[in-house]
């Protein structure tokens, strides 16, 4: 373990703040931050390379999970103690987590995915809020998807809030980032039928055949799905909303679609 860092002005603390707050810093450096014992645990379990792990001994997360420090050290991470003021500067959580890790970004190309022909795939396009993206990936993990593809991302999957709201599912779900047109071609090549969610969909989502070889496509709340996903009305589904609001939060819509697929697959 290196010498403790107590000053919020320390260069390493400033680096943590940049990675936490700036997408450009994450993309240019190929690094990102993970905060919280559970999330760091899942990053390590998912094979993420952890460059450094920062712990504040006075906080509960660091005090109760010494195994994480040991596992990270064995994996080659630099273990650094942060004083309370330095940790408060670097942290974005107020729950006493006490652990921040810096991970190396991993490849996110479609080529890393290989879903079964009868598999379940989730596609999300232009989701704006990192919290929504994370919640969607959390539902995808719970539903046991074979792959998830983030198209035309308005936020990056390594945003700390996306990681946190996913409960670390970013590291456990087979994940890619790709253009929408390339994703449609990729699905068609594998014989996986995609079903695009739209307020003007041609049939209720529960009527879509999701028991095998299906991809569910959900758009962001502001723009919805791009025209390429909606060009064939037969591929569109709707979540009926008899109330006064015509649409749902993107993460709620994704969860409804995913667990309808789970229900159909269990029934079959």
Largest sheet: 6 strands, parallel
Low-confidence stretches: none
Q: How many E strands?
A: 10
Mean pLDDT: 93
Q: Write down the overall geometry.
A: elongated
Oligomer: single chain
Helix proportion: 25-40%
Q: If you had to describe this structure to a student in words, what would you say it looks like?
A:
The chain starts with 10 loop residues before the first helix and ends with a helix. The strands form 2 sheets. The protein has a 6-stranded parallel beta sheet, sandwiched between helices. It contains 11 helices and 10 strands. Helix 7 (130-143) links the parallel strand 5 (120-125) and strand 6 (147-151). The model has no long low-confidence stretch (mean pLDDT 93). The protein has helices at residues 11-21, 23-29, 37-45, 60-64, 66-74, 84-90, 130-143, 160-165, 180-189, 227-230, 250-267; strands at 31-35, 50-55, 78-81, 99-104, 120-125, 147-151, 175-178, 193-197, 214-219, 236-237. Helix 1 (11-21) packs parallel to helix 6 (84-90) and helix 7 (130-143) runs parallel beside helix 11 (250-267). With 268 residues, the protein is of the alpha/beta class. Helices cover 37% and strands 18% of the residues.
């Amino acid at each position: 373990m290196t010498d403790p860092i107590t000053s919020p002005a320390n260069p390493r603390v400033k680096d943590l703040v940049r990675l936490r707050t700036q997408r450009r810093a994450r993309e240019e450096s190929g690094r990102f931050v993970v905060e919280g014992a559970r999330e760091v645990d899942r990053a390590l379990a998912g094979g993420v390379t952890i460059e450094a792990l920062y712990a504040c001994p006075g906080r509960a997360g660091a005090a109760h999970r010494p195994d994480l420090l040991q596992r990270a050290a064995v994996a080659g991470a630099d273990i650094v103690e942060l004083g309370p003021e330095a940790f408060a500067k670097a942290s974005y959580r107020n729950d006493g987590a006490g652990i921040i890790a810096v991970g190396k970004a991993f490849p996110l190309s479609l080529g890393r995915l290989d879903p079964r022909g009868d598999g379940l795939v989730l596609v999300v396009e232009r989701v704006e809020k990192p919290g929504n993206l994370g919640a969607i990936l959390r539902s995808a993990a719970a539903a046991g998807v074979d792959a998830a593809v983030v198209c035309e991302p308005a936020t990056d999957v390594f945003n700390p809030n996306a990681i946190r709201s996913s409960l670390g599912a970013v590291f456990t779900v087979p994940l890619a980032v790709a253009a929408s047109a390339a994703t449609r071609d990729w699905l068609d090549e594998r014989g996986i039928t995609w079903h695009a969610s739209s307020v003007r969909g041609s049939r209720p989502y529960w009527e879509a055949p999701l028991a095998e070889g299906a991809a569910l496509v959900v758009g962001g709340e502001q723009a919805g799905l791009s025209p390429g996903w909606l060009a064939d009305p037969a591929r569109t589904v709707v979540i009926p909303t008899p109330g006064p609001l015509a649409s749902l939060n993107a993460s709620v819509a994704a969860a409804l679609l995913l667990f309808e697929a789970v229900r159909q697959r269990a029934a079959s």
